[in-house]
Amino acid sequence: MCAAPTQGQAIPAGVDVEKETVITGRVLATDGEPVAGAFVRLLDGNGDFTAEVVASGTGDFRFFAAPGTWTLRALSSAGNGTAELRPDSPGIHNLDVAVSK
After folding, report:
1. Which residues contact 19 (CB under 8 A, 6 or more apart)?
2. Residue extents of the structural domains in the chain
3. Per the record, which residues fall in region Disordered (predicted)?
4. CA angle 22-20-65, nearest 5°?
5. Cα 21 from Cα 79, distance rounded (Å)
6. 26, 61 in Cβ contact below 8 A?
């Protein structure tokens, strides 16, 4: 079993989103319903593994990263999905990941 931290919706107190790059979103099934418990991986611009979290009960996930090119890969019993994001500045960058079998 993976020890990835479970995620929630709120950004923790003390996080300065004018200095931090936050990648957040939801894992969604093809019908638009959230997928709880999906493993969400953050891969860098070379496709190398950087981090992994477990989506919350409402499908939410969050990573703290740097500006650049990132791939999000969601793995779940509802299916798998991939999405790419290129944040070019600090702030909250939202991207949902759709999964399907």
Report:
1. 90
2. 21-91
3. 82-101
4. 55
5. 28
6. yes
Q: Nearest-CA neighbor of 25 among 100, 89, 87?
A: 87
Is CATH 2.60.40.10 what the domain over 21-91 is classified as, yes or no? no
pLDDT tier, 97 (very low <50, low <70, confident <90, very high otherwise): very high
What is the tens place of the pLDDT at every residue in 15-64?
776 788 999 999 999 999 999 999 999 999 999 999 999 999 999 999 99
Tally of helices (H runs) and strands (E runs) in the chain: 0, 8
* CB half-sphere exposure, 36, CA atoms < 13 A: 4
Instruction: Answer with the residue of higher pLDDT: 12 or 4.
Output: 12
Specify the pairing of strand 70-76 against strand 39-43: antiparallel
Read off the pTM: 0.85
CA torsion through residues 83, 41, 24, 30, sign? positive
